[in-house]
Amino acid sequence: MENRFETFTVLVSRISRNIRKIKNQEMSDYNLRSSHISCLYYLYTSPGLTATDLCERCDEDKATISRALEYLQSGGYLEPESERRYRSPLVLTEKGAAAGKIIADKIDGVLEEVSEGLTEEERLAFYRSLTIISDSLDAIVNKD
Prior knowledge:
It is built from six helices and two strands. Helix 2 (34-45) packs across helix 4 (62-74), helix 2 packs across helix 5 (94-115) and helix 3 (51-58) crosses helix 4 (62-74). With 144 residues, it is mainly α.
């Protein structure tokens, strides 16, 4: 393939942009943005995560997660178990759990839709390939 770089970078960028657009379109009625949606999803599917855990799961920096958690807490979606929010497990409120369920259901629907036309083996091979590419890029970026 002559245009490997262009094809790879354009497709990865397009996928990322479309994921962000879908998150924003689907949740605009709730005044939630992409980072809010990721936090609510992970807290719904894995209760008891800390802000540090969310940084890792969402692959976002501390400042982004901190702003998202502040917004979600002030909006009544979550509460920290203690005063030390960053190290304390975060608990979804009733409102947060309801939003988390909606988000998880929408994500499941999108994943079903984008997987149409792929066999289970093709999907597994695709994720395996993406993992290899991601790990290789991480290694290049993190060379000393």
